[in-house]
Amino acid sequence: MESYGTTHIFSSFDESLRELRKNALMMASLTERSLERAEKGLFERDEDWCNTVIADDEEIDTLEIQLDQDGIGVMLKFHPVASDMRTVVATMKLSVNLERIADQTVNIARRARKLLLRPTLDTTATLRPLFDFSTDMVKDAIRAFADGDADLARGLRERDRELDRLHREFANQVTDIMPTDPENIPSYMDLIFIAKFIERIGDQAKSIGNDTIYALLNEDVRHQLRRKD
After folding, report:
1. Are 67 and 23 spatial neighbours (Cβ–Cβ below 8 Å)?
2. Domain enclosing residue 157, as ranges
3. Does some domain include residue 218?
4. Exposed, middle or buried: residue 215 (CB in 10 Å: 0-12, 13-18, 19+)?
5. Would you say residue 1 lies in a domain?
6. How far apart are alpha carbons 52 and 66 in whole angstroms?
7. How far apart are CA 67 and CA 9, in angstroms?
8. Residue 120 within a domain
9. Predicted local distance difference test score (pLDDT) of residue 9
10. Whole-number average pLDDT of the chain
11. In a domain, 90, yes or no
């Protein structure tokens, strides 16, 4: 395990940083909860779970704004050195990525509510592996950040490529089915959109991993990825 920054003679800075991280991890817990509820709403065809996801989004948005303000406040008050600055910035960026994940869960919940108005499609069940894969990525991204685990964070990049592959396969499968079942095309389109939202959740998990690596090791892996592409 790597460590974030250093211990300081000014205990007030350490306390402020701990509080910032604690609030970020609380936001992470709420985001994971929304993911679980969106999954229940979709696969259990439960409108109440969908509505809860949508209603809870405001709390997550509020936390993201508060964390941004608190992070800026820490930097202005303490003028942290480079390693501590990276920790503060990574924590602020974590909140941004979590807010974007929560937005995607809201998108999923809204599409799931539309699906509830129509007959059940067997194809919906084939989305579960994608959903579970992206949820596991989010959980591991949060754990990598919380534990300072650079190796776990680094592994998210390859897992995101696998999720992209699963997304393409699902989209192609549904596109092939639609001409044979024209009456259910609206539902198939909703599933295609949901698959895309799930793929974007994986992107945000990868971003959390990238920011964790930068905070721990001062290594910007995003540029390495662009060179490989």
Report:
1. yes
2. 11-228
3. yes
4. buried
5. no
6. 22
7. 24
8. yes
9. 47
10. 93
11. yes
Which tens digit of pLDDT belongs to each residue from 163-215?
999 999 999 999 999 999 999 999 999 999 999 999 999 999 999 999 999 99
Rg (CA), the chain: 19
Distance in angstroms between the alpha carbons of the first and the last residue of the chain: 29
Q: Which residue has the higher pLDDT, 7 or 148?
A: 148
C-alpha 23/C-alpha 95 separation (Å) is 9
- Residues 210 and 208: their CA atoms lie apart, in Å, by 5
77-130: pLDDT as tens digits: 999 989 899 999 999 999 999 999 999 999 999 999 999 999 999 999 999 999
| Cα–Cα distance measured from residue 39 to residue 53, given in angstroms and rounded to the nearest whole number | 10
Helices (H), the chain: 11-43, 47-78, 82-116, 128-147, 150-177, 185-217, 221-228
Cα–Cα distance for residue pair 226/41, rounded to 1 Å: 36
CATH classification at residue 73: 1.20.58.220
CA–CA dist 165, 161 (Å, integer)? 6
Tokens of 189: 């389109």
Q: In this model, does residue 229 exceed pLDDT 50?
A: no
Half-sphere exposure of 143 (CA within 13 A, CB side): 11
The 8-class DSSP code of residue 148 comes to: T
Contact 50, 38 (CB under 8 A): yes
Residues 216, 102: Cα–Cα separation, whole Å: 25
pTM over 0.85: yes
Please say whether the beta carbons of 154 and 208 come within 8 A.
no
Indicate the number of domains in the chain.
Answer: 1
Task: Report d(CA 116, CA 46) in Å as an integer.
Answer: 8
